[in-house]
Amino acid sequence: MTNYVIIGSGAAGIAAAGSIRREDSRNKIQVITDDPFGYYSRPGLAYLLTGEVPQEQLFPFNQEYYRELNIQLVKGCVRFILPDQHQLVTSNGSYIQYDRLLLSTGASANMSRVPGVELEGVVKLDNLEDAVHILKNARKARTAVVIGGGITALELAEGLAAIGIQVHYFLRGERYWSSVLDEIESKIVENRLIQDGIKIHYHTELDEILGKKGKVTGVRASQQQKQVQVDCQMVAFAIGIKPRMDLAIKAGINTQRGVIVDEGLHTSQADIFAAGDVAQVYDRMSGEHVLDSLWRPAIEQGWIAGLNMTGGNYAYEKKYPFNVTRLGGLITTIIGRVGKEVLEENKPDGDADVAGIMRGDSEVWRKQSLGIVAQTFQESNRLRLYITPTYITGAIIMGDQTLSRPLQILIREQVDISPIRKLLLSPQYSLMETLLKFWEDYTKKNA
Amino acid sequence: MEMEKKMMIRKDNPYSNKLGTMLRETSLKLDTLASGYILPDEKRCVQCGICSFNCPINVDVRSHAMRGMAIHESKCLTCGECVRRCPRGVLRFVIHD
Known about the structure:
Chain A is α/β, with parallel strands linked by helices. In chain A, 25% of the residues lie in helices and 29% in strands. Chain A folds into three domains: 4-107 and 242-309, FAD/NAD(P)-binding domain (3-Layer(bba) Sandwich), CATH 3.50.50.60; 111-238, FAD/NAD(P)-binding domain; 331-445, no CATH class. Chain A is globular, with a radius of gyration of 23 Å. In chain B, strands 1-2 form a two-stranded antiparallel sheet. Chain B has 97 residues and is α+β, with helices and mostly antiparallel strands.
């Protein structure tokens, strides 16, 4: 008799439940969650805001799927883990026994500490509850201020603009997402936002949210030396996320920026595993433990953790982190190392708009790129690659996505590009044509 | 009722696909438009469901996409609506020679 307990019903948790059930058809699996909506597509919230998809569509699995999995869903909060007794204490004081425990608690949005954050109309986009709340509040709002950076800030800015709200976007520095994008890419995105009617305020630091009768009426901010005030009915924050690791810390589990796990997704405590946004996962390439907040890696980690919880011995090999997202309406693929900064422990990035990482983000992206850069851009189409003597180690593909899939595979499979390296680095040859020709030959050879 | 909801959201969408809407409204049964099939890359899929939502004949594209299964359903019109709508480039056509 083995009791499996999973804390969290997100991508990693539900994936783990699936892989445990495949291996073990008999024993009890309990999933404890404090999300009233259970499992849904978190990345899909952006499309719920823009009206591309209705709320009920965000649930990929029907009731039958959960019945077949035969999991027991427990709504509630865990207060403590007692590793020595293999027990959990829930918020209503009851005890749950576990033999194998998975921490898939995810991450939660950082909240600002400026005066006025408690006012009605201050929002974040952390979960479906938040998205529903935003849509409800948006009906009453004419103007909104968005604070922060990364993908989530733009999901908020563009989502609110799509509803017809005048959006002001405050940036602390001189450009958008400086830890991952270069100057050209930031400019492309900013220009697209401006075209969508979003007003960008650079070098702007929020000082206070103003309110009347408990509701937001505006913000006060410093713009270098001068003070500015913007009237608005909504203030949306996207200033980074933090792994939800309080339980792990209280239980004496080894943590850093997240819960430290080895390649088998084991934490420092016997029989306790961690996967998804909460886990700081070993990365063979750098020899370090890194955080990311990406859908697919969370699922893959959930699978491996689940298999190992049933007694398996599998390793999660962290590959080049990869995401496709929309920035200012432009589809953008980001793969591998594309940053300029040396990642130091406890000092994960140099982006002034965000503390730590964001959703849809990876610490690896802002690591100093290996190799030298090859780049091209034309109007809104941008391609930036990093090339070592043999491999491509990082890429940003913005706009035209013809090379998105080829580069995903060339980088992931570490395909030897030395035959075309000179051409890639020579300004006389079209980067795109060279790569497409190479891709064509590669796929023919491997067909 | 479900249909009405779908149409309501589609009305606001400037990219609304006329062919898809027409097929949905009239439930026309047509031959497939191209000789080929839709192949997903599950590694890109974030399970948002835009593909299934926009399928004019209600093929559950997402359940294929998230498992990386090609859509060989005889119902699939290969109209390309899911390919075009997917925000992450999960889906692509594989054309038969």
